[in-house]
Amino acid sequence: MSLSTKIVASITATHGKSFALDTTVSGAPKLEQNFTLADGTGDVQADRVYFSSGTLAASADIDIDLSGSLTDIFGVAVQFATVKMLMVCNTSDEQDTPTDASIQVGGGDGQDGTNAFDTWITSDTPGNAGSEAVIITDGGFIMIGSKNDGYAVTAATADLLTLLNLDGVDTAAYEILIIGTSS
Questions:
Q1: CA-to-CA distance for 82 and 46, rounded, in angstroms?
Q2: Could you report the per-residue pLDDT of 81-136, keeping only the tens digit for each?
Q3: If one looks up domain 40-181 in CATH, what number appears?
Q4: Among 74, 129, 137, 181, which one is most buried in terms of CB atoms within 10 A?
Q5: Which regions of the chain does DSSP assign to beta strands (E)?
């Protein structure tokens, strides 16, 4: 199998202001990052991809073991040594019955930090995070990427990525895409 990945992240904001005498001034700041990852395990390369979607019951969490039992779209086992791209979308507002549930994305078993994949967020002790996490409100997403080194995954000690539904009543829905290397 081979993997070819194109990452495109772009934000353009058009901002205008009207002045006297029917004069309008506008600007369009833009921030963009584009790169392609070839098949492989070095810089500007990736050889593993994982995608999943699901729901989390009220206050429930799921641990995604990046060096454990994940499978790709072909049913082949996927284990990561590094993560080059991580995107998590909170699709709670797109369900048949939309909710405003927020999802916390962080490292560790059940959010307690044990075996945390936390090399992409700050931690005093890698692999044993406390409450380091990112909150994604309904309809939101996070995306991080590194075309060269990536974010290290260490089997059995720093390999759990946890999604936690912060809503105590409503179900939360998510989609996750991870691209990385096997070594």
A1: 9
A2: 999 999 999 999 876 678 899 999 987 655 556 777 877 776 555 555 555 788 89
A3: 2.60.120.770
A4: 129
A5: 5-12, 15-19, 23-27, 30-39, 45-46, 48-56, 61-65, 70-71, 77-78, 82-90, 103-107, 133-136, 141-145, 151-152, 160-165, 172-181
pLDDT grade, residue 55 (50/70/90)? very high
CB pairs under 8 A, 24+ apart, for 32-35?
32/8, 33/7, 33/9, 33/145, 34/6, 34/7, 34/8, 34/9, 34/10, 35/6, 35/7, 35/145, 35/147
Q: Tell me, what DSSP letter sits at residue 114?
A: B
Which pairing describes strands 70-71 and 77-78: parallel, antiparallel, or unpaired? antiparallel
Structure tokens at 101: 């549930």
Residue pLDDT, tens place only, 12-42: 988 888 887 778 888 888 999 999 999 999 9
| Strand 45-46 versus strand 30-39 pairing type | parallel
10 Å CB burial of residue 168 (0-12, 13-18, 19+) is exposed
Domain parsing of the chain, residue ranges = 40-181
Instruction: Look at residue 82 in the predicted model and tell me its pLDDT.
Output: 97
The DSSP secondary structure of 90-111, one letter per residue, reads: E-GGGSSS-----EEEEESGGG
